[in-house]
Design brief:
The chain contains nine helices and 32 strands. It is mainly β. The chain is globular, with a radius of gyration of 29 Å.
Length: 723
């Protein structure tokens, strides 16, 4: 170790000691002011400049950032998965990386990070925050490193960070890897992960040496922050090519950041003694809407039935009286954004089937319906049964004692008391042949929404973000029976003249750019669908036509999902052919047909909104295997998930990435606008250039239709019942 390296190590190690000394001072404990949200580094993770820190973002925080210095550009997506676990998906480009005989070859690399917070900081004592992290643990090894880091806030506005690192973070080789004394194999580290995409357990915390890093962050004002750090990363590979003009002249980095407002931060930096860099970070939290939430018009008041009110039930046996009452109820519910589909009553119980057309949270529609029934039903009715309809499927039935509504409204803990009063069960397929039904078939509805898309690592286009406008129309001919058409018009960054796939597998997804290319409108769906219930717990679907952008054919699905349990089972089977990309109804270009389908297990864990899905079966390229998906869902409709699929396609056949994996995001429009709406948009951060593990992209899978209407999901949002 050189004298300069030794002094740098002493300085870094001293940061933690200084943090402890300054944090435990004499005198009485003073109230602790909450710290601002931690800043992000150039890797998109919580940290200093190029180095990580041990701080954690607020639970659920989402950040998208772009950073660049010298030849390196990074596009980062970071999610605070749980209070102590964060993950980052990164897409990097490095100019003049060099490969073979081409010194100007540019590298495009995808990597994943994960960080675990081991200790929370004790703001009034000596204990720092401490975290363990793995950087690029599923990539190709370009940024492969592991670290243990501690951070401590001192003197109110200063945060000191110190850590030890392996892999790239041991570039200056400050001391021997302590794990080498446990096993000599720990001294060997292979950073060449081939096609990447697979865990490299033989490399984690391996290597002959470890390095030290650290730095300081000073929050000069609420918006302005200064940073300085010591980095052991030598960036040797970035300087290897003869075409590279990047030089690492110093291990020290300096920077300044300005938080324009809570969700937008700009940073400028002087990097490694030779170049300048910048960072732009956009951040938000699903639990904090962008706009003030306008709850709209208040609900109807609840007035208890007058003592001695007539309780005769003769009206229920009179079809004319029943129909008149149902028509009046339908008009009132319509003004609440709720459509009445069916109504039946025996004089003691009133049953309604409703479709919530406005509210993002189903319990709010239930509560509004219960208030309307309380105001409009004759005094003889003691019980309300509200069945929720979604996409023409009867999901769950909520039984509500009328007396509970009358006695618990406007009382303390009214929501909790109401939850204890109701029962939830799977809905029957129909209220019976004598029920009143809305007579409105055939019926036409339409949608017009922006549809952003992102695809990565295609042969001729390493990264592309585009936007389409999607116009959809549906004609319902009977309950559950419909014809749906969807047109997609590119309006921004459509591919032009894409190159054909070089995949050794059928190009079921690697030719995707052809289906987005040019500026002509695309018929992405034209299908006949029939959705139905077999019994109170079992759902079914049959579909035929152009099922999605790339495939047409026939298929069916069955789902068993009781409303009072947290898990369900599904099975879908399809026979499809690959569509021509240049013709809305042609199938001749590829002449490819396949039988595909999966058996599925769905489970709502009840832990921080985490839901798991396991699928197993045959995929579009004819490969056999299974998929695992883990999604965190928030009460307001936000969802962030990650998935991977392993099939009998080898890593070499699959190509870069080794197997299919990615991240999905669902954003409810309600989060961005001040009025009630059920609309939402989805974005996939994943490569769609690979063919192994590909699955049909259907818009009406059964589980997403019924998911939000079981006991667990209704309880999660039950606080909106009285709103």
């Amino acid at each position: 170790m050189s004298q300069r390296q030794r002094w740098a190590a002493y300085a870094v190690a001293g940061l933690a000691t200084t943090a402890g000394v300054l944090a435990v001072g004499p005198g009485e404990a003073q109230p602790v002011k909450p710290l601002p949200r931690p800043s992000l580094n150039l890797y998109g993770t919580t940290g200093l400049i190029d180095m990580p820190s041990a701080e954690a973002q607020p639970d659920g925080q989402i950040a998208i950032s772009y950073s660049q210095f010298g030849p390196t550009a990074r596009r980062n997506f970071t999610f605070q998965i749980l209070p102590r676990v964060s993950g980052t998906l990164r897409y990097s480009s490095i100019e003049d990386w060099g490969q073979g005989d081409d010194p100007e070859y540019s590298l495009y690399d995808r990597s994943f990070d994960i960080q675990f917070q081991l200790l929370d900081e004790d703001r009034t004592g000596w204990r720092p925050a401490m975290a363990l992290g793995l950087r690029d643990f599923l990539g190709t090894g370009v940024y492969s490193s592991e670290y243990l880091v501690a951070s401590k806030t001192v003197a109110k506005d200063f945060t000191l960070t110190a850590g030890i690192g392996w892999g790239r973070l041991s570039g200056l080789a400050m001391t021997e890897n302590p794990f080498c004394s446990v096993s000599s194999s720990m001294c060997d580290r292979d950073n060449d992960y081939g096609e990447g995409g697979k865990p490299a357990f033989g490399s984690y915390f391996h290597g002959e040496d470890i390095g030290f890093f650290g730095g300081v962050e000073w929050r000069a004002t609420d918006k302005f922050t200064l940073k300085a750090e010591y980095s052991p990363d030598t960036y040797s590979r970035e300087q290897k090519s003869s075409a590279s003009d990047f030089e690492r002249n110093s291990p020290f980095n300096f920077g300044a950041e300005y938080r324009w407002f809570e969700g937008v931060t700009f940073g400028a930096y002087y990097m490694y003694g030779s170049t300048v860099g910048f960072n732009i970070a956009l951040s938000g939290n699903p639990n904090k809407p962008l706009t003030p939430q306008d709850l709209g018009a208040g609900p109807l008041p609840v007035n208890a039935r007058a003592p001695g009110a007539p309780t005769g039930t003769g009206w229920a046996a009179n079809p004319a009286a029943r129909d008149q009452l149902a028509t009046a109820l339908a008009e009132v519910l319509k003004s609440e954004g709720i459509r009445l589909e069916e109504f039946a009553s025996d004089g003691r119980t009133a049953q309604v089937v409703i479709e919530n057309r406005r509210y993002n949270q189903p319990p709010k529609a239930i509560g509004r319906t219960a208030r309307v029934l309380a105001a409009g039903m004759p005094a003889s009715v003691e019980t309300f049964k509200v069945t929720l309809l979604n996409d023409n499927l009867e999901t769950s039935t909520i039984t509500i004692p009328r007396r509970a509504i009358e006695t618990e409204v406007d009382t303390p803990n009214a929501g909790e008391k109401m939850w204890e009063s109701v029962t939830i069960e799977g809905a029957e397929p129909s209220l019976g042949p004598d029920a009143w039904r809305r007579d409105a078939y055939p019926e036409f509805s339409w949608t017009l929404v922006p549809a952003p898309y992102l695809y990565l690592l295609t042969p001729d286009d390493p990264i592309r973000l585009g936007i389409n406008i999607e116009a959809g129309g549906t004609v319902e001919f009977a309950p559950g029976l419909s014809v749906t058409g969807l047109l997609s018009q590119p309006i921004f960054n459509a591919p032009t003249n894409p190159e054909p796939s070089e995949s050794v597998l059928p190009p079921v997804r690697s030719d995707t750019p052809f289906y987005y290319a040019n500026w002509t409108p695309k018929l992405t769906q034209l299908s006949v669908d029939y959705l139905f219930k077999l019994n109170e717990n079992t759902y079914g679907r049959v579909s035929a036509g152009q099922l999605e952008r790339m495939f047409g054919g026939v298929g069916g699905e069955v789902l068993w999902k009781p409303a009072d349990q947290s898990w369900g089972l599904g099975l879908d089977l399809n026979y499809v052919a690959q569509r021509d990309y240049y013709s809305p109804f042609g199938f001749g270009y590829y002449d490819y047909q396949v039988a595909t389908g999966q058996a599925s297990f769905y489970w709502d864990t009840g832990y921080y909104g985490l839901e798991a899905e396991i699928d197993a079966g045959r995929y579009l390229a004819g490969d056999w295997g299974g998929s695992f998906r883990l999604t965190r869902r928030f009460a307001n409709g936000w969802a962030v998930g990650a998935y991977f699929t392993l099939t009998d396609v080898t890593a070499e056949e699959f190509g870069e990435g080794s197997f299919d994996k990615g991240v999905t995001i669902e954003i409810p429009f309600r989060w961005t606008v001040p009025f009630e709406t059920k609309s939402r948009n989805s974005v996939s951060l994943t490569s769609i250039s690979r063919d192994g593990g590909a699955r049909l992209d259907l818009t009406n899978r059964l589980y997403p239709i019924v998911r939000d209407y079981d006991r667990g999901h209704l309880k999660q949002n039950w606080g909106s019942f009285w709103q």
